[in-house]
Specification:
The chain has 10 helices and 15 strands. By secondary structure, the chain is α+β, with helices and mostly antiparallel strands. The protein has 2 domains: 160 residues, no CATH class; 186 residues, no CATH class.
């Protein structure tokens, strides 16, 4: 099992400068490879990352001697990542690769023969030992390491092929989880998670720094300082959101054998300018991404219900469907059985009923309507999810 551990680094000024140079070399190699790929493809050739690596190795000593100041892995792995990006594009699961911009996702990757880990230190080629904030959690064969920058901090993500697996889910209980912009999650057992909403909480500070940055002269030291402050604040927002999502998804994957969620149209919701900020602040896509891999490694099952299922409009007690249900309605009474419902709690209960009455053929597959009176079908667990 491949697992990654992201650890904060504590480099000195010389080491931080080296990381910046290596990231710059990786970015240059990626952009050079992308431009060369386009040129060769338009000329009728069939470029590959291997051919681009050979081509770059043949010319870099004369044309780009500054590349030799950092590890050879920086440009090599960048071209391999470019090849992977084109493979995803040709498979139709990603857009066409674009050029990388300085200061955005600065990173470089090392293969396992180019670094070593000892305690709370990692040895990087041409640099020496760099302190890490904590030791590697997993034992096993180290596969690779990626050094990246977020705001003004450096991190290393070490991938290990390990047999150390997290504890399996405690039971096979089923839970429905309804996501919303007012409350992050409402579970069918009545648990409600409000959500930190870090972007909303820090919005005034973000706006103030953004206005200050727009007034600074480009290229000035003052602008660079304000830009760094803004980047650190954005990183803080992301860290708060990710921390809450990781705690919630780990709790769900550990306590429940079957988790049912709705296939939300996040892209469509983000297109609504009235909802976009609130939706982005909750992190719906990241919530689902984490649940996919956490349920898989813990032996659980994630069921994703069809997005057209009217979970909020159907009475979870008698099954009567209401004609309309505006978003402003948070509580409603069933016209047939007179049951009083909380909108989100009712939806989460309906998600479970839908999953139970439907045929599940694979972990993570979208569930389609099925006849409630049909004979029961054996459900499959621990199957690779189809969600990308």
């Amino acid at each position: 099992m491949l697992r990654s551990h992201k650890i904060a680094l504590d480099p000195n000024k010389q080491q931080a400068t080296y990381f910046s140079k290596a990231s710059g070399v990786a970015r240059f190699a990626y952009n050079w490879g992308l431009a060369e790929w386009k040129r060769q493809y338009e000329a009728g050739e069939k470029p590959t990352h291997a051919s681009l690596r050979r081509q770059l190795n043949a010319i870099k000593r004369e044309q780009f001697p500054w590349m030799l100041e950092v590890t050879k892995n920086a440009p090599q792995m960048a071209l391999i990542h470019l090849g992977d990006a084109f493979q995803r594009f040709f498979r139709g699961v990603a857009k066409y690769p674009t050029f990388k911009k300085k200061g955005i996702h600065d990173r470089f990757t090392l293969t396992n023969d180019q670094f070593s880990v000892r305690g709370k230190c990692i040895r990087v080629p041409n640099l020496g030992w760099v302190r890490m904030r904590e030791a590697l959690r997993f034992s096993g064969k180290i596969m690779s390491a990626t050094v990246s920058r977020k705001a003004d901090k450096w991190f290393v993500s070490i991938t290990v092929d390990t047999d150390d697996a997290p504890s399996m889910c405690e039971n096979q209980a089923m839970v429905g989880v309804d996501l919303g912009v007012n409350r992050l999650a409402t579970m069918s057992d009545g648990t409600r998670i409000q959500g930190a909403k870090p972007h909303k909480a820090l919005l005034n500070r973000l706006r103030r720094l953004s206005r200050s940055l727009s007034r600074k002269q480009k290229g000035s030291k003052t602008r660079a300082k304000v830009k760094l402050k803004l980047a650190k604040l954005h990183a803080k927002v992301a860290n708060i959101r990710n921390d809450e999502l990781h705690k919630l998804t780990t709790r769900l994957a550990s306590q429940y054998g079957v988790i049912v969620i709705e296939n939300l149209n996040v892209k469509g919701m983000m297109a609504n300018h009235r909802l976009a900020r609130a939706v982005g602040d909750m992190g719906f896509h990241e919530f689902r991404r984490q649940l996919v891999y956490k349920t898989k490694i813990r032996g659980g099952q994630l069921i994703v219900v069809d997005r057209w299922f009217a979970s909020s409009k159907i009475c979870s007690e008698c099954g009567t469907k209401q004609e309309s249900m505006p978003l402003s309605v948070r509580e409603w009474t069933c016209s047939k059985c007179s049951s009083l419902h909380d909108r989100d709690l009712n939806a989460s209960k309906n998600l479970i009923k839908w999953a139970v009455s439907s045929t599940v053929t694979a972990c993570g597959e979208d569930v389609r309507p099925a006849n409630i009176e049909a004979a029961s079908v054996k459900q499959e667990f621990n199957v690779k999810p189809t969600y990308e």
